[in-house]
User: Fold these one by one.
Assistant:
Number 1:
Amino acid sequence: MAYDKFEILKSSAVPLPIENVDTDQIIPARFLKATERKGFGDNLFRDWRYNPDNTPKEQFVLNNPMYSGKILVGGKNFGSGSSREHAAWAVYDYGFRCVVSSFFADIFRGNCLNIGVLPVQVSAEFLDKIYKAIEADPKTELEIDLQKQTITLLVTGEKESFDINGYKKENMLNGFDDIDYLSKMKEEIKDFAEKRPF
Amino acid sequence: MSSTLFDKVWDSHVVRKIKDGPDVFFIDRHLIHEVTSPVAFLGLKERNNSVLFSGRTFATADHNTPTINQHLPVEDPLSANQLKALEENSAEYGISHWGLGDEKNGIVHVVGPEYGITLPGATIVCGDSHTSTHGAFGAIAFGIGTSEVEMVLSSQCIMQPKPKKMRINITGELGLGVTPKDVALYIISKLTTSGATGYFVEYAGDVFKQMSMEGRMTVCNLSIEMGARGGIIAPDEKTFEYVNGRLFAPKGADWDKAMAYWETLKTDEDAVFDKELTFSASDIEPMITYGTNPGMGTGISNNIPTADQVEGGAATYKKSLDYMGFSEGDTMIGKHVDYVFIGSCTNGRIEDFRAFASIVKGRKKADNITAWLVPGSHIVEAKIKEEGLLDIFHEAGFVLREPGCSACLAMNDDKVPAGKVAVSTSNRNFEGRQGPGSKTLLASPLVAAATAVTGVVTDPRTLL
């Protein structure tokens, strides 16, 4: 499905300073039984967020009213493990439009880009600065400018640039997706398929 | 110009190169299952798209299926609904569908090779990260998200930047009791779960040449656990012999033509990799994991490392050991275990069950162990019976379940209870992976068998 355009996002952020956050934590397998893409945000980080009796775990950051915003800030190697796009859907459905980390797992990064969540990879030092700024003031804001490819810690004005390939950037700026692109290529693809040996 | 095996297969599948963007990448074979495909079919319908080449997609139900009483209706309405969606979508678009009860049904990465869907030089994708399994045949195979499943259905292509290339060589010969699973867990423990992110890995050297096709599948299967998109092994006589005669493999003149192509599928001698690593087989012993990601593994006779001995932050490391209830410096051998699971796309093939049987034969399941033996497919199940392994299992106090992904991801009822420890031949030991609150120790079928008969983590070399 096509998604909202992403241009500039200015928001407070939710800190999750844990490394190797895998997609089984982002959304456990037992919540993958739906045949439609809805309601996944309710189960985002389910087992870190809720006790077995479904009462909230108060110490978990999503249950702490001090923290909110459209940006999730995760530790190194965020999104490792399963290819389930449900993990990216859960992040989006909960209300995040951007995930910041010092390193992303490959498939999760691709899934985010395909559904309109911007993965922003920053240096370990900048990540640390973000965590410290949020610790000092949970309402501190970050600004992510996709056109300029910059992320700015507004309280100090410190900024860093991030990578995204030009094609994906155009897609996100315009709310296009790959299926739109591929749909226009069908004749070329059919010709290509003719020549495949199997 | 000299090129790698990976380059040869990748470059021959690029339909169009996009400047400062991904390649439009053609997919020969697309495997789908009930969990990651329904939303892709919904998207297809919403956009008024259709399936471009229905003969290139194959559907099997595996992730969310029961492993007992498969002849009865599925009780959980959500699961039943997902299975129904796969069946109906497949029927609507003319896709081969092997649902519950079909003799070809089984784990997608087990049945793909068994029926000759997996071929050398092919590109294979599936909405499942362990699609890397098929790289054992010299195919480029990797997991994709649901948006990409929709792309493949509607256009037989995805948009992929070409990954970097890494080669991992293992020289020498594996010792007694050291299996392909141990080789993979060893490599992952050296690279960590993100050490190969951004790369596609070619496995080379004596150990992989000597390895059976099933062993190669186990190694390639686990490539994703070090962050790699996939792994690939050059096809050889073993590969061709495995593929020849299988249901969907080329026949007659098509076979000869395919063989001529397949014989070119090797890395040129002077080809260059972005990264190259070499390990010695003699350094590898039976492995076991002690933490909450597959990189947290060690030789079974070692102690759990201290935080300063491992990469990454001490806080994350401590959180992981706390979850497991383990301490730095603990010995793994002798740890109490409650469950043993043999199965999954990693270790659910006949050689895995033969290995398990080689240890449990003439012994008895320990009383404190609940064991789940889950074949990867009906072909594996039939071989277990034909070869007399089932009798060995029964005599030792084990029962055999029906094929499926089962306790690997615990979407069905095969859940390890909270607080319980499982030794599993599967691929992930993430928190709660095998059931909320469950604790997983990843290991080979030999370690699983040794543990199943003693009730505690046991070095299989003491029982061989």
Number 2:
Amino acid sequence: MNGPRLSRRDFLKLARGVLLTISGLLGLGGLVRFFSYQSQPPAPTEFDLGLASNYPPGSRTLLPQVPAILIHGDKGFSALSLVCTHLGCTVESTPQGFACPCHGSRFDPRGKLIRGPAAKALTVLRLETSPDGKIHLFTN
Amino acid sequence: MRRLIVIASALLLLTLLGIAWLESRRVKPVALTPTLTGQVEYCLSCHAGLPEISKSHPVKTFGCVICHGGERLALDASLAHSSMRGGKNPADYSVVEASCGGANCHSGSTASYNDHIQRATTSIQATYAGAIALMRYSYGAQPNQTALFGISTVQDSQSTSGITSLQAYNPASESNPQLRLFGENCLTCHISAQPTQTGGRYDHFTGCSACHTPTQSTDLTSVNTITATQVHKLTTAISYTQCDTCHNRGNYDLRAMTFEPRTDQPTDRLHDYYQPIAQFTRCEWTLDCLDCHTRTEAMGDGSLYGSKFDIQYIRCKTCHGTPAELPQTITLTDPNNIAFRQALLNPVVDLKLGDTVLVTEKGEPLWNTRLLQNGTYRLVGQATGQVFTFKPVMGSGCTQDPNDQSSAACHKCHSVQR
């Protein structure tokens, strides 16, 4: 039953090895975590809206991820930012146009200011159509 | 030597384990980049559970720091809170301009109805000028009741009341001991002062939050046991209980110059009403204070006044008219009328263009009222949503002199006994 006893020297060697190995792994983990840290990515300023054919004439498509509304009118596509020009709340689409839930500003369906406290119309956003027929929206 | 290496290895491991443990306990950063500031802040790492403070101040748009101050990038609570404005109350008047001001916010123009800070900080509730003048006059420190002093120095060259400045009142400079006592004991009824009691139903914040941040329970049955809760909320639906945190706390004993807190424990609204000795009519205790008293009465009109009677002007006839005339009304044809702004902030009524509402003699619309087709009127309680209907005095058989419309005259017939 009695196996070979571990000598004191071997025990210390083994303990040293185990301790240093665990320490090394912990340190390595910390380094990996440190170098893999990603700070807050900047908010996107370009949005791929997909094929233009997905938006039939006369459609008004809310794009909550922007936030914006894509309008396919008589003269083609246009886009309005849904960020209120007063203090930056997201305006809501209403039958009369747009209404800010925060402070009551009103805009007509084309984004023109009807009632304050906002002092400016909703911002018109830039659109581009790529050769493959996709619409790209830019907020900057 | 080998033993020393093993000990050093063990210490190294323990240190690394300690660091890993501390790291695991660190707050996980939750970033927010408010639309309004465009600057990332990490307050939600700890405060994600807070409710939206109001519909007008969504956290996604405003964030926290623009109002509260603080170190927006800090994850350590002490560091993050170290530079907060006004502690837990950024609307305290000492910091309100930085927290709530700005032309687009609450120190804008009169024309755009967002001159709240100018009006509130010059209002009689903030200056306490009337009480100071009355007390100084009563104790011979000044020859008349003209307001000379306020809680702090205020200049207002645009004031239309004839008072263009108030000096900061310093009770310590008074020679009359009663006035010094007045300074010590009785200057807590203005909205820059901390309440005399904390933790009870009379607890309230200072500055804007004194009225717009509810702090106490409406449970009338446990007057002295209520623990005031600090609610993360801004509202214009202000209950009478919020007004009572100042206006119904008790009485001042002017001989001893001490404050005597209420000791009664009212169990219903009727007995909770204002001064125990006052006469009043039913609407005065069934409505909330702000169902009658207007924004300029409560928050001032931008001018300095020396008495509350110079700014408080609502009377019974404002809503009820007199035996000789109907109350004044206005049909809302301008979408920019302030009535719509008020109804948006407190949507207890669905106000529309073309609606006819009561209007005061100074032209303030009582936005929560409506003239009905049958000639009667409807009022919706701003804090309760409760609907009240009432008739005009004209045609009612009331024989009161139309030229004597003081509340005392109306109370002769309409006072409530309790």
